[in-house]
Predict the structure.
Amino acid sequence: MSESDQNYRTKLVNTEQVQIASVFDSKLNADKAIEQVVRGTDVESQQVTLIEPDDSDFNRKLEGDSKALGKMMWYSHLLLGAAGLVVGLITAYLLVNIGPALTQQNPLATYIAVISPGIFIGLFVAGLLSLRPDRTQIIEVVRKAVKAKHYAVVVNLKSGQSVSKVRDMFSRHSSQVVESIQ
């Protein structure tokens, strides 16, 4: 596996949030790798998904429940937007009470001018977190494998399972292994 395929963000989160995908030329090689990973690690067979060529349902197998993802995005926008509002309110309050004369003489304009960017920045950060560009790599690798008549194996790790051990076991048999935060 090349250094460019290794996702260093996966080292920053709990392993139950890590997903590993690997690409195989044949079903036989994919099945052998799955068997070795299940036997050689504490990964259970229920955590492993085999995606076959021309599988039109591979997005669901890769992403899982889209309702949970949508719910997370909704709550992150609400939470970070509210946090931006609170930071804006606190900043405006301080400016109106102990800030320069201009902000003390124009409290309404100060509140509007400071709260708006606070909300915007909170929502912007929530949007950036929702985009998750690290997911693009794993999705594209699986999409290309399926279109090229190859097999993809996706493993959703649980807490305490070794990312490097699973990645290394797949690397012995696979032409490409990528990992991402779920």
Residues 1-5 have pLDDT under 50 and may be disordered. Residues 66-98 form the longest helix (33 residues). DSSP finds seven helices and four strands in the chain. Residues 80 and 125 are 7 Å apart (CA to CA).
